[in-house]
Design brief:
Largest sheet: 3 strands, antiparallel
CATH architecture of one domain: Orthogonal Bundle
Strand order of the largest sheet: 1-3-2
CATH superfamily of one domain: Winged helix-like DNA-binding domain superfamily/Winged helix DNA-binding domain
Structural class: mainly alpha
Distance between the termini: 20 Å
CATH topology of one domain: Arc Repressor Mutant, subunit A
Shape: elongated
């Protein structure tokens, strides 16, 4: 998943009502829910719901399927899994902090010898964080 698409998905999820819609659809499972049921469960007007569903479908987070007279919304689990995987793919990999040349001159002794050296920290190893496990970083790990 590219960063632009991820940012767009997160932007669309950034509204409380849209987040509630997605959470409700995820709780409903792969079969999703009819739009009328979503409206009743969340207690919002039909026009407001339509506006929010339009944003979610434009990002691909929700899919709609017409069933005769019923419009059914289903969550796009694959996209959500890709989004979570992109956000956590380098979890706990460690980041070496950058030291500017101006600040580097302030350090003496064993930390820095010249302005071109970098401060060395022992980063946390990838996967050592309690929330990092092989299964959590794999696509498909999002519970359904």
């Amino acid at each position: 998943m590219d960063i632009v698409h991820a940012a767009r998905c997160l932007e669309k999820l950034g509204h409380p009502t849209r987040l509630e819609i997605v959470r409700l659809l995820v709780r409903a499972g792969p079969g999703g829910l009819p739009v009328g049921v979503v409206r009743k469960r969340l207690g919002i007007p039909a026009s407001t719901l339509w506006h929010h569903i339009l944003h979610l479908t434009s990002a691909g987070l929700v899919r709609q399927q017409r069933e005769v007279r019923v419009l059914r919304c289903t969550p796009n689990y694959r996209l959500m899994e890709m989004l979570v995987a992109m956000l956590t793919e380098k979890c706990c990999a460690g980041v070496e902090p950058a030291v500017s040349k101006r600040r580097a001159g302030r350090y003496q002794g064993s930390v820095l010898k010249t302005h071109t050296d970098r401060v060395r920290f022992s980063p946390v190893r990838q996967g050592s964080h309690e929330r990092c496990s092989a299964s959590a970083r794999q696509p498909g790990a999002l519970r359904r």
